[in-house]
Amino acid sequence: MFYRIAASLFAAALLAPGAFAQTSLRSMPAEPFKFLSAKEVDALTDRPGPGAKTAFPVDHENYYVEYAARTDMGNVPEVHVHWTHYIQVLSGEATLTYGGTVSNAKETAPGQIRGDAIVGGTSMTVRTGDFLQIPAGMPHLFNAVRPGTKFHYVVFNTRQ
Q: Model-level pTM?
């Protein structure tokens, strides 16, 4: 009898984590299946003029996906207090400045800070195929390397 109770408790302990792992932690349901053709993805950020062009094909309470294009001017440093970025460079080259502090920082939306420049940051060139992780709270700024060109990337954002 003791062995049957012990075996039952052992089996329950093994199965319980799987049951809990399948429980949704979100108040919103997961996103449904979605498809965008390459042409539709390109159209998301294909707008004239300098600066940032962004589109959000997936927007959930704990994650969102952003397609972005940057030119060589008109971009501003940003800090996302609650969101970590996982970035895949799709095309082009850009100078990424990250870290340091944002001068003349202003909260433009809850948890969203923008400013004039990054002071004391580190700069590097990022290219097609590169992957980046920018933690929540880290200042960052992208500028296309060559005048008149665009830098395209996709960002997978998770709430921290």
A: 0.77
